[in-house]
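Question (not urgent): is this output format expected?
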Amino acid sequence: MNDLFAGQNPHAPLAEQMRPRTLDEVIGQRHLLGEGKPLRLAFSSRTPHSMILWGPPGVGKTTLARLMADSFDAEFIALSAVFSGVKDIREAMQQAEVMAQQGRRTILFVDEVHRFNKAQQDAFLPYVERGTVTFIGATTENPSFEVNSALLSRASVYVLKSLDAAELGELFDRARAGVLDALEFEPAARERLLGYADGDARRLLNVLEQLRTATATAGHRVVSADFLDRRWPPTCAASTRAAMPSTTRSRPCTRPCADPVRMQRCTGWCACSTAAPIRCTWGGASCAWPSKTSAWPTRAPGTLR
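Got this back:
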C-alpha cells in the first residue's frame, strides 16, 4: 500500500528525480507554505490534521504528502483510489488500529480521492472521527461535488494554485543547473517552454527531459525557438487548458472569491465574480453554474454564510 512512496528509481522520469526532498525546496504555494501559513504551521508543530489538497496536476499535491510522511513521526499508509478497493481500505484501517493500540499516529494518504464512490468514502468516516487516522486526500476535482459532505466537514480543504511564470522560471533554472547544464537556451525558447508548461511543473520537466533526448540525437547544444517549432508543432505547444470549456468541473478557481463559500463552489478555471447572481468568468467568457447550483442562495458581495 506504500508503493506510491517507494524508493528512488534510477530510471524514474526527470519530474520524479527532481521532486523536492524538503519543504524549503518546494516551489510555489506560498499562500499555504509561507511563514505563518496553515501548512507551514502544521509542519513546524509536527501536528498533522485531516485535509484535502485540491488543485490541478503538477502543482505539488503528492509532493506535500510525501514531505508529511517524512516530517511527522507517524505511520504512513498510501492508497490510490485508481487501484484500491474496499479490501485495501479495510486492510489500511486494520493496520491503523494496530498502530493506535501501540500509541502511534497513522497518516492515511488517498490519491485521486474523488475516484472513490460514496460508500468507499463513507468507510473512512468512523476512523477519521475517532482519530485513528489523519486523512489526507488529493484531488483534481471540486471536492464540493466529488467528496462526501460528511468527510468534507472533518477535513480542511486547501486549494493549490498553478505555478506562475516566476515560479516556473525558478524550476527551469533548477533543472538546468541540475541535469541540463550541457544545454543553452535562447530567451525566446525559454519563454516558449514556460508558456507551454501552463502552470504545471511536471509538464515543464517532462518536456525538458524530451528536449535532452532530442538535442543529444540531433547534436545540438543550443535550444532555439525554431528548434522547438520543428520538434513540437504549434498545435501541440498551445495551452490545453485554454481549450478546455469553462464549465469543466474539475478545476478550482485560480483567484479565490471574497466569499469563501463561492470559492469552493467555483466549477472552472475561473476568476470568481462577487456580483450576484453567482457566476464565473474565464478567458473573457462567462460560464454559468450547472443546474445543480440553481438553488444556491445569492448573497451580497463579500457576505459570509
